[in-house]
Each structure stands twice: as C-alpha cells, then as structure tokens.
Specification:
Blueprint lengths: L2 H5 L15 E2 L16 H4 L18 E8 L14 E5 L6 E6 L6 E8 L8 H15 L6 E7 L3 E8 L2 H10 L8 H13 L10 E8 L10 H10 L3 E6 L8 H13 L3 E4 L4 H13 L3 E6 L9 E8 L5 E3 L3 E3 L4
Parallel strand pairs: 5-6, 5-8, 8-9, 9-10
Antiparallel strand pairs: 1-10, 2-11, 2-13, 3-12, 4-11, 6-7, 12-14
C-alpha cells in the first residue's frame, strides 16, 4: 500500500486555528461538503429505543466514533445535538444510530511515546517534565490508565498500563537519550501490542497515543503507512508534538501531520520548548471535550476493507475532527 493510498483515505477533517498563542499548526484545506441528500442523514436516522449513552453493542458491524467540534477560534463546542451532524460511512448514510452523547466520560487509555534518539538530546529533560505535568492534568485515579514507551533505534516499554502516577513518572524519568530513530516501528508496536487488544475491557474506552518526536525516522523497518494502518486498526487517535524548534517546518513535521490527521488527532508545532506544555494542556482539554457516536453502517461487509468516514456539522461555522475511517474485521 502506497503513502498516496493512505493520504486519500476519507476526507480531511483537520481543525484550522486550533492552537492559540505561539503554538503553530499546519492549516488544512476546507473539505468539500457532502451531497445535499446526505446532510440530514443523522437527523433522519432514529436512535434505537433500547440504547443509551452507555450501551455496549458487541456486533462487529457497529462503529464507535469519537470526535471533537470547534469554532473558528479553536474553542471546543460541547452542547451540540445529534441533529446537528451529517454522517456518511462508505459514502452511505448509517442504517441506524444506537447512541449519541456529549462530553463523554469514558475511561481513557493513553500511550505516551517519547523520542529518545540523539537528535533530541538537548530538549529531552524538558520533554520529561512536560510529559509528567500532562499526566497529572489528564489522568483520573482508578479510571484512566497510561503506559510509557521510549524509542530510539528500538522501542522500550518503560511502564505498562497503570493509573499510578508515581509509577508513570518513574517510567518517564527512566528514559535516556540514545542513538537512531525508529519512529514508525515504535508507533506500530505500541498500537499492535498495547492498544489493539490489551486496552479493551468490559466497558468502552477512548484510546489515544501522545507522540513526542521531531518526526525524523532513519531506522524503522515498518513504513509510515504501516504505522498509520495499525493505529487505525487499533482505533487509536494520535496526537503529535514536534520537538523541532527551528523557524521552519521540516520533513519530520510533515510526517507528524500525516499521522495525526489520518487518525483524527492533531499535530502541534511549538515555536519554543516551553510551548510543549501548552500542547499537552490542549490535548488534555480535548480528550475531555469529545462526543461519542455509535451506529450501524449500511451495506456492511466483513471483508477486511477500509471504509471511509465523513462526519460534518450542519452549521458551517464549526469544524469536526474525527478519524478518516476504519478497517472491518474479517468473518
């Protein structure tokens, strides 16, 4: 599969003007509106009578979609209703919507991936401090969990799933800057080994990866599209924070943007090291400002294919950010 195949999946739903102040971000082109006939798709589809915000449907042909909505100033909109949205799955309106909820309180499962390659040596101590502060802001005791993975030429799990902040802090502080950079391998490994199956439990969770890196890969055996595909299979949103503090965005920054956009996340480009903390704060706010939608797609086939998702707000002042699609499971 080529990178061009990955980049044309679905429709771009990147948020413009998301980060205030000195945190710069690529601006995405506005995406084309869906056909007029699809604009009322969610308004006209009924929510099942036996469902609610916390209903769990186990069938393979039911999709759980987490998304955020913001205005042009980047402020999250938290009080919209089901009828405010239009949805297409594989270019078709959903067959049925099971539940729709605002500001979901689902448990978080967050993987922290810290680049420890030699290229970020001078910035490393501050990254550790900012990551620790982020977890203190984000995790709710006995509800949310995180793991810590560092990577240079190889990935190294420093702390497995836990809600214990002291253990997570110890894992962050145990990371040491080293040699080359195998970013794609680390992201692939984290999603395959920690988020694809092991993050599942008796209740639905929101899964995310926070990737702190300069985006320059020189050691991976996996390709960029391999790592993106594994994130999508694991239904994991990836937020990227660039450690490139030069005035110009480089090739690595473009890689970080591609990863985040393909998974429904955001790429942050701090102009100064201290702005990394601002990026973490924004991610923490977003993870607690999301909507959850559960629906049954029309004409579903369990053939392992990738199905595009197009989700938009009927009010043109607001921008929706969601994953671009998902892989079906084979029977």
């Amino acid at each position: 599969m080529s990178i061009h195949t990955v980049l044309r999946w679905g429709f771009s739903a990147a948020l413009s003007g998301l980060v205030p102040g000195s945190l710069a971000q690529h601006q995405a082109q506005p995406m084309a509106r869906p056909p007029a006939a699809a604009l009322s798709s969610l308004q006209s589809v009924q929510i099942g009578e036996d469902s609610g915000a916390n209903t769990i449907h186990a069938s393979a042909n039911e999709v759980n979609l987490i998304f955020t909505v913001s205005n042009r100033q980047g402020r999250f909109m938290k009080d919209l209703k089901q009828s405010d949205f239009a949805l297409l799955d594989d270019h078709k309106a959903p067959a049925q919507v099971y539940s729709f909820s605002q500001e979901t309180n689902m448990p978080l499962r967050v993987g922290i991936l810290i680049d420890t390659s030699s290229s970020i040596r001078q910035r490393f101590q501050f990254e550790q401090q900012a990551t620790t502060e982020f977890l203190l802001q984000l995790l709710r005791p006995n509800i949310d969990q995180a793991f810590i993975m560092s990577f240079d030429a190889t990935a190294d799990l420093k702390q497995d799933w836990t809600s214990n902040l002291d253990q997570l802090k110890t894992g962050i502080n145990a990371a040491r800057p080293g040699g080359g950079t195998a970013l794609y391998d680390a992201l692939y490994t984290a999603c395959r080994d920690k988020l694809l199956d092991s993050a599942r439990g008796p209740e639905p969770v929101r899964k995310a990866v926070i990737l702190v890196s300069d985006g320059d890969d020189n050691q991976s055996r996996a390709l960029l599209e391999d790592s993106i595909e594994m994130c999508q299979r694991a239904e994991t949103i990836v937020y990227t924070i660039s450690t490139n503090t030069s005035p110009w965005l480089g090739r690595g920054d473009d890689v970080l943007k591609k990863i985040s956009e393909a998974t429904g996340g955001t790429a942050f480009y701090p102009q100064k090291l201290k702005d990394i903390s601002s990026g973490f704060r924004h991610i923490a706010d977003e993870l607690h400002s999301q909507y959850a939608l559960q629906y049954k797609p029309a004409d579903f086939r369990a053939d392992g294919s990738f199905r595009d998702i197009y989700l938009s707000c009927r009010d043109g002042r607001y921008t929706v950010r969601a994953k671009r699609g998902y892989f079906t499971s084979r029977d």
